[in-house]
C-alpha cells in the first residue's frame, strides 16, 4: 500500500476544501489506480516469466491493494445512515456545509443513532451546518462537545 500512497500523492488535508471535493478527488485518483490493472497483470506475467520471486511478491501485494481500492469507491455516495456510529470527530475539515450522513426517522421524526456517544466539532462549524431535516440539529446537539 505504501507504493500506492506515494503514487496517489493525496493533498486532501487542505482545510479550505469541502468534504465533497475531497471525496471526489479521492475517487478520481482511486479510479486512475484501478485503471492500471492491465499494467499490474502484465507485471505479474513478466515476473513469472523471469522467475523473480521477490518481484512477483511485490506485484502480487500491489494487485491486492488495487483490489481493496475498488471496494473503497462504493463507500461514499453522498449520504449514508450510520446506526452503529459511536463517535464523530471533525478536524481540519475546512468549513463543511453538511455532514455526510443522515439520521434515522422514527414516526417521521429524526432520532440519534442508538450507539452515538459524542460528536467533537468546532462550535462555529457546527452552527454553520445545513441540515436535511429541521430537527437534526436539535437531536444531535445533545452529543456535541466543542
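^ C-alpha cells above, recovered residues below v
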Amino acid at each position: 500500500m505504501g507504493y500506492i500512497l506515494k503514487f496517489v500523492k493525496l493533498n486532501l488535508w487542505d482545510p479550505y476544501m469541502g468534504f465533497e471535493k475531497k471525496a471526489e478527488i479521492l475517487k478520481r485518483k482511486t479510479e486512475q489506480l484501478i485503471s492500471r490493472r492491465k499494467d499490474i497483470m502484465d507485471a505479474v506475467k513478466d515476473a513469472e516469466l523471469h522467475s523473480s520471486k521477490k518481484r512477483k511478491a511485490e506485484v502480487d501485494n500491489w494487485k491486492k491493494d488495487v483490489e481493496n481500492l475498488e471496494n473503497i469507491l462504493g463507500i461514499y455516495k453522498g449520504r449514508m445512515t450510520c446506526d452503529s456510529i459511536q463517535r464523530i470527530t471533525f478536524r481540519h475539515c475546512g468549513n463543511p456545509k453538511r455532514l455526510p450522513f443522515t439520521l434515522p426517522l422514527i414516526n417521521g421524526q429524526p432520532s440519534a443513532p442508538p450507539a452515538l456517544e459524542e460528536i467533537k466539532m468546532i462550535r462555529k462549524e457546527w452552527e454553520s451546518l445545513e441540515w436535511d431535516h429541521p430537527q437534526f440539529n436539535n437531536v444531535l446537539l445533545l452529543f456535541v462537545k466543542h
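The chain has a mean pLDDT of 70.
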